[in-house]
TrEMBL record:
The keyword Transport does not apply. Belongs to the DXR family. The gene is dxr. NADPH binds at residues 10-13, 37-38, 123, 125, 210. GO terms for biological process: isopentenyl diphosphate biosynthetic process, methylerythritol 4-phosphate pathway involved in terpenoid biosynthetic process. Keywords: Isomerase, Isoprene biosynthesis, Magnesium, Manganese, Metal-binding, NADP, Oxidoreductase. 1-deoxy-D-xylulose 5-phosphate binds at residues 124, 150-151, 181, 204, 217, 222-223, 226. The lineage of its organism: Bacteria, Pseudomonadati, Pseudomonadota, Gammaproteobacteria, Immundisolibacterales. It comes from Immundisolibacter cernigliae. This is 1-deoxy-D-xylulose 5-phosphate reductoisomerase.
Length: 392
């Protein structure tokens, strides 16, 4: 039995993970569930799975959950953000599923890596912000890092025997082909896309996900973040990672080897597949997903991304090329711009402008330690906020 800490339990990754855990009660025990403030969903999870520990980082929400669970509860409820770093280190926890969205997930993901846990990483923003520090923590902590982002998990599956952090080139890898659905605006004229509403942007054609990542898919910033994520996971430069638009979203990515072989991973677009894979690795187990029917899929299309239509992609390549704190600046400015868009304060078409202006305004410095990264994150949030205000 492996003890699991599920961070971001009330979200989309949380739902998919719980669905896999339900299939295998003999293999996993849920030790910790954590989220920010969603009391009704956390209450359901605690009643169904009876984990020993639940964390809601917002104290008022935690108090509400404690009261709702009542006396004699199986689950102890903690609050505060720093407690996440402690609970992932607990001896009962073998596996940490990092499913918190955004920079809020960095400290707990890093703590799990430092503590040598098996870390199933969905929270790509953590790796984007602090890639070098993160991979150092994985190596020094002796952690097993397995990506559950569908594309990087696909690449990992196409690299048998590989451990994340090793240079993939030493395994004969020439390039990574990172697939992108193209999002809801793949064929939408730029002028219409610029005026898109949050609900239009969140209507992803293939995946049901949280609103922040859905907007990122619509701008293609999600793909940009995944370029940076792949670079750190597989030890490759940006020019060895090519984005390929594949609207069917059944080829989840490909690895090109030096002999000209391309290995791909295919599956229905269902996050239970990478999550079940990573939980069982190096074995296999049922995920609950329906196997892909190739006769239903019938055809697979691939095309290059239109970089003028989706400027966020080039901004991400630029930040990766600059290095240092540039990716932390990119990520923070994007989080501010997406939040402003979702709150109706920024036009969809201005998300890329805010990120670009923030990169222009803030010089990148070497990302020597966590304090430097967090300082860049904070400075980028201030600049991006004023960029949003200047467009209101
Ligand atoms: N959804 C998907 O299919 C995929 C997601 N990912 C990545 O996984 C991560 C999660 O995405 P997704 O599940 O879609 O997002 P959701 O918005 O559905 O869920 C976010 C989760 O994070 C929690 N959370 C948010 N802020 C905080 C905070 N400050 N402290 C603690 N918990 C917090 C939320 O808690 P609460 O509900 O209480 O606010 C919720 O449990 C993202 O990094 C995303 O890029 C990667 C690949 C696929
Ligand atoms: C499910 C998953 O991994 C998401 O990151 C997904 O990739 C979003 O799709 P696109 O960003 O390709 O539209
Ligand atoms: Mn993805």
């Amino acid at each position: 039995m492996r003890g699991v800490a599920l961070l971001g339990a009330t979200g989309s990754i949380g739902d998919s993970t719980l669905s896999v855990l339900e299939l295998h009660p003999d293999r996993y025990r849920l030790e910790v569930v954590a989220a920010r403030r969603n009391v009704p969903r956390m209450l359901e999870i605690c009643r169904q799975f009876r984990p020993p520990l639940a964390v809601l980082t917002e104290p008022a929400a935690a108090a509400e959950l404690r009261a709702a669970l009542g006396a004699g509860q199986a689950t102890r409820v903690l609050d505060g953000h720093q407690v996440l770093e402690q609970v992932v280190r607990a001896a009962e926890v073998d596996v940490v599923v990092a499913g918190i969205v955004g920079a809020a997930g960095l400290a707990s993901s890093l703590a799990a890596a430092q503590a040598g846990k098996t870390l199933l990483l969905a929270n790509k923003e953590a790796l984007v912000m602090a890639g070098a520090l993160f991979m150092d923590a994985v190596r020094q902590g002796g952690a097993t890092l397995i990506p559950i982002d569908s594309e990087t998990n696909a690449m990992f599956q196409c690299l048998p025997g590989y451990r994340c952090g090793e240079p993939a080139a030493e395994r004969g890898v020439r390039r990574l082909l990172l697939t992108a659905s193209g999002g809801p605006f793949l064929r939408t004229p730029v002028a219409d896309m610029a005026r898109a509403t949050p609900d239009q942007a969140c209507a992803h054609p293939r995946w049901v996900m949280g609103r922040k990542i859905s907007v990122d898919s619509a701008t293609l910033m999600n793909k940009g973040l995944e370029v940076i994520e792949s670079a750190w996971l597989f030890g490759l430069p940006g020019n060895a990672i090519e984005v390929v638009v594949h609207p069917q979203s059944v080829v989840h990515s490909l690895v090109e080897y030096c002999d000209g072989s391309l290995l791909a991973q295919l599956a229905s677009p269902d996050m239970r597949v990478p999550i079940a894979h990573a939980l069982a690795w190096p074995e296999r187990q049922a995920s609950g997903a329906t196997a892909l029917n190739l006769f239903d899929v019938a055809r697979l299309d691939f095309e290059p991304p239109d970089r003028a239509h989706f400027p966020c992609l080039d901004l991400a390549y630029r930040a990766l090329g600059t290095g240092g704190t540039a990716c932390a600046i990119l990520n923070a400015a994007n989080e501010i711009a997406v939040q402003a868009f979702l709150e109706g304060q920024l036009a969809f078409g201005s998300i890329a402008e805010v990120v670009g202006a923030s990169l222009d305004a803030l010089p990148a410095v070497p990302a020597e330690n966590l304090e430097t990264v967090l300082a860049a994150d904070a400075a980028a949030r201030r600049i991006a906020t004023s960029q949003v205000q200047s467009r209101c």
